[in-house]
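Task: sequence design from structure.
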């Protein structure tokens, strides 16, 4: 593994453990989710490692799949990557605060996901990765809910909120752009 991949992995792990946990706090503080035995920031001790692993897998998925398929795409610019990250954070806030229920939240999140994808991806691979991330992420959360690890206070299906897959659609192009920049920024010079 090259030095760029190691650094990218460490940065993604750190961002997932810190920023990801803070974003999860939006949901606990807005009454969207709850943990049976809250710890710090109304969270559970296993949340930072889980979000670290999620950021790593979501962030490295794009550069890994591009290599495996032999389909390199353009390196997203720093402004588009930062903008995508900002939109993803906005999507997280809206998923916990937007009135109107799962349908309204889901539609807004899909629009944000499309804007993120348009700003820093624009590939069919990116669409496939976003859809895969939505399925895998929602399945993992449903499993955690059914295991009693946490709960959605207003679930729509399988113990989770109906808009949850749409939030994962926002996550993949934003975190994937970050991962691609971290892996390839040194190679582009």
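Answer:
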């Amino acid at each position: 593994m090259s030095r760029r991949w190691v650094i990218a992995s460490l940065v993604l792990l750190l961002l997932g453990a810190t920023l990801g946990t803070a974003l999860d706090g939006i949901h606990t503080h807005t009454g969207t989710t709850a943990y049976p035995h809250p710890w710090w920031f109304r969270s559970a001790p296993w949340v930072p490692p889980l979000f670290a692993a999620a950021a790593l897998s979501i962030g490295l998925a794009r550069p890994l799949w591009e290599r495996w398929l032999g389909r390199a795409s353009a390196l997203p610019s720093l402004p588009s990557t930062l903008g995508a990250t900002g939109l993803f954070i906005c999507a997280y806030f809206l998923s916990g605060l937007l009135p109107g229920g799962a349908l309204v939240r889901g539609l807004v999140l899909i629009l944000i996901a499309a804007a993120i994808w348009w700003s820093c991806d624009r590939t069919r691979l990116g669409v496939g990765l976003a859809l895969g991330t939505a399925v895998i992420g929602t399945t993992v959360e449903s499993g955690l809910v059914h295991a009693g690890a946490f709960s959605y206070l207003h679930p729509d299906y399988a113990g989770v909120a109906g808009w949850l897959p749409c939030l994962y659609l926002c996550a993949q192009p934003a975190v994937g752009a970050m991962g691609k920049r971290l892996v390839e920024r040194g190679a582009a010079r």
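Residues 3-184 form one domain.
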